[in-house]
Structures are given as structure tokens and as C-alpha cells.
Amino acid sequence: MFTKQLQQQIQKELQSLKDQGKYKTERELSSAQGPEVELNGQRVLMFASNNYLGLGNHPEVVKAAEDALKEYGFGLSSVRFICGTQTIHKELEKRLAKFLGVDDAILYSTCFMANLGFFATITNDSFGSEEAYTDIIYSDELNHASIIDALKLMNRKVTEKRIYAHSDAKDLDKQISEDELACRNKIIATDGVFSMEGDLANLPELVKVAQKHNALLFVDDAHATGVLGATGAGTPEEQGVHGQIDILSGTLGKALGGAVGGYLAGKQEIIDLLRQKSRTYLFSNSVPPSVAAASLKALDLLEQDSSLISHVKQNSEYFRNKVKELGFKTLEGLHPIIPIMLGEASIAQEMSKKLLAEGLYVVGLWFPVVPEGTARLRVQISAAHTREHLDRALEILAKVGKEMDVI
Fold first, then answer.
1. Is the whole model's pTM more than 0.90, yes or no?
2. What is d(CA 306, CA 297) in angstroms, rounded to the nearest whole number?
3. pLDDT band, residue 17 (cuts 50/70/90)
């Protein structure tokens, strides 16, 4: 029963969020995703989307989804192991595995569910052993919420968690070396690209640490797949360790078409185990066939046209340099995520509103999404942005920045 007491508790919490300026609102688009979108009857520049390659409304991707709807239907109305697997699902898994340089891949409803499914399966299962055991997870302090939440679901009786300093392989190595707890498995968990900063994990060093300590290396590469590396295979390819990561998670919902769907890809035995025991896989409906087909087409386009990758890199470099020239403080990097550091949450909130009023859609981020005192605008660049789009966005940033005495 929804009691008066519970109602009041919820109302108090919602009001607290509003008072602190942390209450989230959703802006309703009346158009497809793209470099420009329709919002409240106004055409605005979109610089807040993960549509890195501009494939969210690409005509060939849309057509692939339409064709799949006609051939395979809208959905399977079931989970994979009952009657929810089609040839198109297996085809996509094979393509992803080949693309990422690993043994096999398994599809999930989202990357969030993939991460939850991996850690819950690997750490909570005794694998038939009656002996007491302990697993230790070493997690980067700025890892994505899906990894943080996955670690909360671990069985604390058999799993220990350690947090190492952001992108600090030396701190990680030190922690593992000093850890006196005898354990069954050591697992290193990191994002490939950290979504709030746009910086990259040092995967070559993490590979060395993993090999030194006989640890499993898990990389969430959701923001890098399709974006980084010569062929778009992500952070491992960008950093010269393609095919050397034990387990990768990623998404179909960012660069690869921008819909839904996630995956885990890696060692054959791990993928086989996940098909048997991962609850977020076993008890979730299959990825819609239209999404699978569109994702396959996105992979085709990547193979056929490397200019998509080079274009988003060129756009990102141009925009980052111009933002610095204007006097904004940003973080160094090569990824299309470009944070504009503002410090105070109130400034980030106000600037985001003013930018939108001028025709530029950029989202402000503040605590608890980012650490206290590091509020920012997160600008996201796409291959679909033309130089005109970029220059118009820079003009608006300069105008509002000067009006607010930010620059």
C-alpha cells in the first residue's frame, strides 16, 4: 500500500533534489537524432549525443532496420534460450567477435545489463567447488555506474573490492602486490574511455599488470567501439593491444547506430559460461531483430568507409583546440567527448540553459555525476557535424561564456 508516510518521504526527497539543483528534466525531441534536432518547435545544434559516427539516422542503417522488421518481425516475445534466438543474432555475435579480435561475443539488452551479468556470474558462482573461496575486484575510481552497481551486487561473503587511483597502473600494481588475502581470482575492471572526462585507460600498462599478477582484465569500451582505432575496434586497437583483453563489454547504443543492445566479448569459456548462467542474459528478452540488422549494417559501413572514424577525430581535434583558444578550460584528449570545466554546479546549470536558448544543446554535469567542485559541460562531437555546425556552436559558446564572465 502506498502509505501517506512513504508519499511524504518521496515528496521530501524530490523537493531536496530540486532545492540542490540536482533535479533532472528530460527534453523532448520531435525529430530523429542528428547534428541538428527539433526541440519545442526550434531547430537546435545537437552536441550532447553519443551518436559519434552519425549513424543514428543514417539512411542505410534505417533501411537495414526496416528490412529486418519485414523479414524477422518486431520482436521474439521471449528470451534467447527458449525461442528468442534468430540467425541474425548469431551473425551479429560472430561479427562482433571478429571485429574485436576475440573468441566469441554474447548479446545483452544493454551494456549496463552486460556488466551486471558478467560480475554477478563470475564472482558469485562456486563453479561446483564446495571449498571456501574469495575473489578480488580491482576497480578504477572513475569507472562507469554500471560497474559500480555490478560490484554492489556481488556476494560480499566471497568477494572483496578494491578501488585504485584513476588510470594509475602503479597504484593498481602496488595494491595487488600488497594484498595478502589469498583468493581464487583477481579481476581488474576499467572503462576504456571514461565518459565524464573523455580520457583513456592505459591499457598496455594494465595488460602488463594483469599478466604479472595472473589477473583477468575486464574493459568496458562502450564509448570507444566504432570511434577509436584504425578500424574502430576501440581502445585496445587504439593503444596497440587489440585482441589482448580477456573480456570486453560494449554497446550498440552509441556509435553503432545509437539504439539499444549491449554485448560481452572475449574468451570462449567465459562466453559459454555466461550463456548458461548469466541471469541478465537468461531472463531478458532478445535484442530486437531490427536492432541486430542495423548494427550489422553499421559494422559494414565502418569496414567500407574509414572516413567516418577520421572525420570524427578531425572534428574533435578542431573543436577542442578552438575551445581552448576561446579561453575555456578543458581536458586534453583525442576522444569526441570534450569536457568544458566550470567548477560550480550552478554555473554549469545556468550556462547549459543559456546555450540552449541560443540554439546549442549541451548538457551540464555536476555532483554526484562528477566529483564535487568539478561541474562541467560535456560536449560530444559527431562525424555528422559539418565545419559550419562546429563554428556555429563555438560562436554560441563564446557569446554565452562572455556574458557569464566564464571567459
1. yes
2. 14
3. confident
Tell me what the mean pLDDT of segment 86-114 comes to: 97
| Percent of the chain clearing pLDDT 90 (strictly above) | 85
Residue ranges and CATH numbers for the domains of the chain are 22-51+306-403 (3.90.1150.10), 59-304 (3.40.640.10)
Identify whether the C-beta of residue 266 lies closer than 8 Å to the C-beta of residue 107: no
Cα 407 from Cα 402, distance rounded (Å): 5
Residues noted as catalytic: 195, 223, 254
Which candidate, 292, 256, 288, 263, places its Cα nearest to that of 55? 256
Q: What is the 3-state secondary structure (H, E, C) of 197-265?
A: CCCECCHHHHHHHHHHHCCEEEEECCCCCCCCCCCCCCHHHHCCCCCCCCEEEEECCCCCCCCCCEEEE
Q: Is the pLDDT of residue 129 over 70?
A: no
Lookup: cell for 328 = 575555456
Looking up cell 559541460 gives 377
Residues in the chain: 407
